[in-house]
């Protein structure tokens, strides 16, 4: 009886109600929305044709003076040079005067831009993206916070082209769907990586997970779930970008794993300042010691002990050639940031003594830049030992300075920097101490012609990381964004 009542009266009523809702509420609403939308789009288009495109860069900390800011300013300069009638807007939380910010860009990065073309859009919700606002679930909450900041940005200016240069992927959908503008981004570092998820899964205690979580299977499972959900969301928002630029192979591979859009992902190396180093002339004379230079902060991941072990192996290889061995010196140049680093230097000195290498190893701590330049000119080889470094700017700099470089066979040096095919060799790669030792001997045995060829090839190859190359690749990648379809 009840069933009959439901099927005869209630269900049709629900159905009719639903129809009424659709015809009288949803359809008119959609209609109003669509026409409002078309008007906005049309107005935007008219404005764009009259005043030039509004290109908006999302870079909250545009006055920070780091590598990310160099990318921002060089990119802005390139866009203005290629599309002179465009207007640049920067969404920022900085409070400094426009003149101060632009002066700093010029002093620090040697990038001069036309002040009248740049408009700063001040955002007030700075707290929304600060990590310290969120003691828990930082990744997720900070990303949602960036959406709030993105909404504020969108309300203050609806741009024609949106480019994010800080990796806040969660702002993409706002600009893609609400602002209806093409979205581009330059990514230095993915917010989450497949490797991070795997680390939780295998319960490895590392810098970003605490031991309580690693020990407890339930917590591990929950954290994994959290990372999985976050990774999935990151993929969803990432796919809202029309053009993705990654700063190197490492970043590109990780983005392809999570965003899965390799066709609009491009590798655009950040601009490095190598032209000055390329001018350096070697001052090494025949009678001088053969110096092997390492330029690396005294941090654990730089793996200085590996270099000492390589020297140890080298001496074993040279037992019959004491004279040559006595000529070879390892010079470790680097900065110490704190007492921990200083202790590490002391430990390295102890290790050198333990391996009886103290006469062959020299430490140069916190040297000024002029001294570093002098070290470049008086060394003939460079050594790099860090495993899986994302890029390895120090390797690029040593190559630019004219040193024959032996770098670790992993990460950036392997994928991006060093070419080891015999005909086009720009350096050497090694992974084990004895491999390093044999590479050193091989370099020492090179004829001066061969040496010259490698140095020249290496110096030419670092142009791939120059400012000019960056501008070219950036504009090429950004072209689909700028074109008015
Ligand atoms: C990309 O950015 C990350 C984070 O700043 C950095 O560690 C890496 O070295 C960069 N890669 C290149 C090719 O510069
Ligand atoms: C995100 C997180 O849980 N980080 C912790 C990882 O472990 C270190 C050291 O135990 C803690 O200081 C972090 O807070």
Descriptive report:
This protein has 485 residues and is α/β, with parallel strands linked by helices. The protein folds into 2 domains: 235 residues, Glycogen Phosphorylase B (Rossmann fold), CATH 3.40.50; 192 residues, Glycogen Phosphorylase B (Rossmann fold, 3-Layer(aba) Sandwich), CATH 3.40.50.2000. The chain is built from 19 helices and 13 strands. Strands 3-2-1-4-5-6-7 form a 7-stranded parallel β-sheet, with helices on both faces. Helix 2 links the parallel strand 1 and strand 2. The longest helix has 50 residues. The model has no long low-confidence stretch (mean pLDDT 92). Bound molecules: 2-acetamido-2-deoxy-beta-D-glucopyranose (2 copies). The site of one 2-acetamido-2-deoxy-beta-D-glucopyranose has 4 residues, from loops.
Write the layout of secondary structure elements.
Blueprint: H1 2-51, E1 54-58, H2 67-82, E2 87-92, H3 98-109, E3 118-122, H4 138-156, E4 161-164, H5 172-178, E5 183-187, H6 194-201, H7 211-215, H8 217-238, E6 243-246, H9 249-259, E7 265-267, H10 275-279, E8 290-295, H11 304-317, H12 322-327, E9 328-334, H13 339-354, E10 361-365, H14 369-378, E11 381-383, H15 393-400, E12 404-408, H16 411-417, E13 428-430, H17 433-445, H18 448-461, H19 467-482
Parallel strand pairs: 1-2, 1-4, 2-3, 4-5, 5-6, 6-7, 8-9, 8-11, 9-10, 11-12, 12-13
Helix pairs in contact: 2-19, 4-5, 6-8, 11-17
One 2-acetamido-2-deoxy-beta-D-glucopyranose binds next to loops.
